[in-house]
Amino acid sequence: MLYFWLALAFVAGMMMPLQAGVNSTLALHSQGAIWASWISFMVGTAALLGVVLAMRYEWPVIADMKHAPWWAWTGGFMGALFVATGAFLAPRIGAATMVALLVAGQLIASLILDHLGWATFPQHSINLGRALGVVCLLAGVVLIRMN
Length: 147
Description:
- The chain is an all-alpha fold.
- Helix content is 77%, strand content 0%.
- It has one domain (15-145).
- It has helices spanning 2-28, 33-55, 62-65, 75-93, 95-116, 128-145.
């Protein structure tokens, strides 16, 4: 089962540049990246609603959701920023540079989150191997951007 989850993460990662390209194309036909991002979120919302209804999930209990910390509600904002930024940057800096920078930012933030064990992540201290992984990734960003 672990290999399935690893493959799923890999395939989802492959969707990042594709999503940015699709959304930047939509931006050309919808008055810009913000409208394209909004449309993307509406389509995504409809798709998730369809899944919820098809799977017959129970609706969340609002009283339970009130106990979530304030920052637990910021994921939608972060997703909107990510989608809008991708739609805006894709035609300006290209897929490889954009994704390299996105992944570098994601990896650095991930190391910090793992080190702190924050927001439901299991705690994994930063060590030499993890630090070298970041350095190699940053070198990759430089090499990709040199072209």
